[in-house]
């Protein structure tokens, strides 16, 4: 049994989610070609690292992430820290020849993401970015449909990622509204990247954008009840063109009143169409132009054993998967990338290209003009 | 242009709805093979008859329905009076050799409905019962699918007709809760007949039932605020067997909290299934067992020009029809029955068979046992 | 009984729809304060005018619309001709002191619409544009909610009007794809105006746009099978800002694969949100931020007697209205505007402002920049 | 840290699901008041037990379940074997003073379930039956609503559990269609118990039934292609009365064409109503009679941190849980029952009462009459 040794950096909620996903991946998918094992855990809060190690049976823990990055026994560095330190850790890991599994967004700027991608490419290491929503059997099935030409030529895409936890004025100023910690792109950076990842996965690269950004409540009170100016967008949206000529509209909003996890898309092609909503993550709605005219309509397809990965969970169609199952499948993608040479699409190059669109939207919104992604570093 | 002369009996809300439907039918479907024209109107309230005649340009009005029934100039007697006088008028009309268009339910007892059916059969006149929900293009399409074998052998049916206007205790005692006016079957008589009409139209005859009835609020106050005992059921439901061996469940309720016009059904066959809900009357949900296993699911088909009658209204799929449009199509069925010898399925025989099931449920509920419809007169 | 005498110009499908709506309006709403009666009908095809007159009992018919416009006996000129002759007829009618009821779009250019509006304003005549989708009880209810502050401050709008009858390459070149007849704005002119009308009715004026247009199949064959270049857009979409500061996205597409009458919107405010879809025209989905956190969610409200105009049709909640019912309510709005001084919101000024946005999108798409509507004539 | 030592009997798919749930329960809910640890595993297939022990780090494995039942070190016996041996193992475990966690159905007959319940009651041990669907936060929330009187007096229930994997004639004869292994109640035993468990959890006990059973394909081929007579029902359904006077309809079908995991219910009360469908397990639809008449409708409430247990998984409303998460929560209920004296509702008494209704339906269907559950042993 091949064991991939993981050095986890960040012992918070997401670190725990990774640990669970690694163990569950073994149970669901078995031990072939390899299993993931957290061999060491680091956190700036050393006590948290220690507690984590005890809870999950991790042999080594430390307050110094560098000691893990440089540990010759470690195969993969898993980064679940705050966004702003992703680049430093990832670059150090790559320099040490490690594979890297990094939560999204890779970086707060496209330039940093680009550096990370180029370093990884040069070093020839495996990279995976935590675009977990791509890991759903439903999305893999959607991609198969498209690759098999079932939708014909795709010419239009609409996508959103709306939730509404910040629509309430009394929601506090946090690191998310602080440009230093979360970047100048608020909902745009945090959430648009998810819908962009789906757009890129299913339709291809966005190459040109015209966008706008919006702040609903200009000021919020921080934990000490001090009023602070919100430093990044609550809502960002843009029209765009894809490399293949398709038109698109994308939106990301943390003030999307009434929506909770409305990561949705609609894809229109000459032979068919799809729509999807993460609030109903186990359903893909499929329309075929080629159906008999008397019975054309959207069909609600429930996740099924014929869709990639699902049969490892359940034998019958329609048994709901949950968010945590996506992380288990993501762990599977990491294993396959590292141990089977089957690179997962959501690598650093993919993440960088997403970040470049995000930055193009930022420029477009700030300058009030169409921006080509090739303008961005 | 052939004109079918109608003698309308009952100048209330439903009478007006018929008048409008007759005129709109000409506009929508044209003048071939005939048009309907109200030549005389009667109402026990003579003033109402007069007002109606003025408003709709009817030449003759009267307080005495018999004078219309016996008018040699009249081709069709159209009955929109309260239920309890349907039989007397219909039998007189048949005796006078008239065709009869009668609102549902035909009668308050199966025995009366039987007499009406037998008299009409013997006289050879055309009869139509106002089961307007059958007149929807979506139902005609559903029937085509079934007749073409698209669902395979049908083995199960579930149907409801729920609304909730009587769930409120303060809703008054009216003629509907009065057994003399509305019959002993309350929701059962008024509403189950609609879902039974759909079941019979799509699946075939119900031959055996085991049912129960329920009164939610035993007493209600009448218009004079006098407390009266409710004399018929608020909810009736039953399991059953169809002639073809299928099993079924039907429910009718005027206390169906949360439902407004929930005339719904689900039909399961060996090759496919359907579900439908009148609140979304322009949609039929279709499932095919023969679809690729990877993409099985219910398809939401919007009403389309390929469905019977719709193209007379609109050229493109998905333009909503409303309740009043069903009455227009019913008028068309009446015209075709009278002038083109194309008998509409919902005739007195059909209505009688529905009423027989209603009565079987009544007996079953009261005696707590399975009842075969052949036991009923 | 006051009779408003209408001179109908255009005896085609829409003319017939108006005629039916006028008569049904009397039945549904009664005779107070007035009824509409078509006193004369004109069509360039004189035979069509004659046939129409016979069918609907119209006293006078002609091949020359000017004779009707100048008929002193006529109160309202009703224009259902092709779009390109709307301005000429409307301006002549206004010059003759007539009220004008005009199908949408008012004109193929904003400049013409502006002239029509200004002429009508100067003449003090009543004008109504056929934005029938605004006439739904559900929209009137939505507007009440907003005016009553139930959604708080509205800060975001998304709207679409997608159908898909042109996604098929073999759909022919018709007047709709011909810039001379239908204007340079294809889906943009024909369909975006509907979604803009809803946006303006519910949220307020769009003042700035950044848009794009798209042609899916550059060539189509005409009725003679000659290949012709398609001269206007199949899809147009844009991001925008509203006068009140809200952001928006609007889309119109006749190639919206899978959608049939997807005139939809979502409106997000600080206290609530709405979404709506014309395919389910009798439902309004309402979300309230103020609900208990344990039970927040979108509520599906069916059309009800408490919503404007519905009680004239039905007494109980949830009985579906159809497209033709909207035209009946529009006729009611015309009656109220002419006879009761209760001006309907969708007048020539409203239509002009919609057309100005359409033209701003045209300029924006062609020049690749943000355009303010005040730049447009 | 208190450790509850579990002896697992049955090392198949469900055994693995339990093992995963136990570990994940610790991660999700923490270590207070106790954790579950599998200390020994037994399977008639000793190799399977061995493989299981290796994979999940279980110290002891055996082919003889009795050695585990009698192991003084074990606190809880966890039974995931085929149904027909549940009683023997459970009774032995109770005799040995163990707590018992048993998959559903407890037994193939009500008499056996009764014996199990009475033995457990006498011994004073904790029992939990694997009615995992009750463990959803959405169901706990539904129950809270009902207990708080939000629905008023409940008077009607409809519930189904439909899937369709056996609608295909070529689906083989297996242990499920074999009365010896699966009992005389097919879909009735396997699936009706789930919908009954929801009915009992939310509305109360069913006391009287009138039902029917159905076999779609009388013969199926077994693994050796030998044609065998199907020995139990594919579909069972019944009308019923609840202890509180409510009426009900329940259905269970493994031939429910088009349905995949359609464990659904609708509950109608004098003040509100609910409907639910396990295919969309993270949504509860709530209707309140007390809403303003203008805005009455079903509200789609997504699972939220205010609902029991959900906050341990996610901080924001609407993040989907999956099937496996229900098993984690069930493990939590077991821990609370054993270590915190907080008995979970789904104990052996609960399971027995469910089985008694199942048996009443069997008798009712076979004898064609109403059967009171008190008639059943």
Characterise this structure.
Four copies of one chain form a homotetramer. Chain A is of the alpha/beta class. Chain A folds into two domains: 3-133, Rossmann fold; 134-319 and 346-371, Dihydrodipicolinate Reductase, domain 2 (2-Layer Sandwich). Chain A is built from ten helices and 17 strands. Chain A has helices at residues 13-29, 46-56, 65-69, 86-95, 110-123, 137-147, 179-182, 187-202, 323-339, 348-367, and strands spanning 3-9, 35-42, 60-62, 76-79, 99-102, 127-129, 154-162, 206-214, 219-221, 227-229, 235-242, 247-253, 262-269, 272-277, 283-288, 297-302, 371-372. Chain A has a nine-stranded mixed β-sheet. A six-stranded parallel β-sheet of chain A has the order 3-2-1-4-5-6, with helices on both faces. In chain A, helix 4 links the parallel strand 4 and strand 5. In chain A, helix 5 runs antiparallel to helix 10. The longest helix of chain A is centred in the last third of the chain and has 20 residues, at 348-367. Chain A starts with a strand and ends in a 5-residue tail after the last strand. At the A-B interface, strand 16 of A face strand 16 of B. Strand 16 of chain A pairs antiparallel with strand 16 of chain B, so a sheet runs across the interface.
